Amino acid sequence: MTRVRTTLVVLGLVGIAFPLPAEEPLRIAVVGLVHGHAGGFIDRVKKREDVVLAGISEPDAAVRQRYKDAYRLEASVLYEDAARMLDTVRPDAVALFGTTFDHPAGVELCARRRLPLMMEKPLAVSTEHALRIRAAVEASGIPLVVNYETTWHPSNHEAFALREKIGGIRKIVVHDGHRGPKEIGVQPEFLDWLTDPVRNGGGALFDFGCYGADLATWLLDGARPLTVTAITQQMKPEVYARVDDEATVVVTYPKAVAILQASWNWPFDRKDIEVYGATGQVVTVGQKQVRRRLAGQAEELLDAPPLAAPATDAVSYLKAVARRELRPSGLSSLETNLVATEILDAARRSAQTGTTIHLGK
Length: 361
What we know:
The chain is of the alpha/beta class. It has 12 helices and 17 strands. It has helices at residues 38-46, 61-70, 82-89, 103-111, 127-140, 154-161, 181-184, 188-194, 204-207, 209-219, 314-322, 334-353; strands spanning 4-11, 14-21, 26-31, 51-57, 78-79, 93-96, 117-120, 144-147, 171-177, 227-233, 246-253, 256-263, 270-276, 280-285, 289-294, 300-303, 357-358. Helix 4 packs parallel to helix 5 (127-140) and helix 5 packs antiparallel against helix 12.
């Protein structure tokens, strides 16, 4: 049934109320449930009236049942096979919550059906996979969003806005991570692939290094680096025997450097950035504040302005993209994330070979 809204038209002293058609809720389908962020996304969708959960696919029956119970899902929205689900429920947009390794197949699945989609970070486990994704997107013309939690932090956008006030960017330092996925108790299916070097691309390097690669690329207006040098370590080999749990990546540009510190060994959760220019610095403080210090002046603590709708959260952004109200840009765009993937791929090769990777044109 089409929902209606009532609009009041005033003619002189007479008010006449009549119904106008309201926009139908956006129908979103979820492909895969093994990414730990799936639950939060499903919960946010269920709490809104402007979007609806059209269907969910997940081949693992035990995982499907757990989500069904945890989020009180109707059995009718749950499917084992993704293609069958998409063809049955015919959604307006799709959110991928499978492994990073599965992203190319998920994008191709949506591209064949001309469905706008969002995936959880990072874009891909390798440059090869990223180019496969780009080919599918370009052939079909569908919009693609790469979702990072840090995209919705007003403090990061304030740091971006203050770049020129501090004399341009000379150095970026990004800290991301937590105590470790096992230590914080992620879901077993999430831990299984996060600690798989093929399905995740690495360990902390890809899980949290992607935030820094994305932010640095965005802050530097999409610039490709000259070189990438990385060191990865296993601080806890008894816990993470197959992947790194510590990564430091140095990325150079003609007139700037970015240092990405990704770790499963922080004593607490971290997602913060430091941006240094010729005449000052900006450091993010949580999600809503920054510390700014200009040469010769005292440090200031500033409140970051709130983000403008619809770029306030992943659900609102996906809805706007699916409605063709905006094109994915900046932190969420395919273009930015192709460069971010190139950085991560080069960082992995650098750590494996003990050499600096020089990126060509």
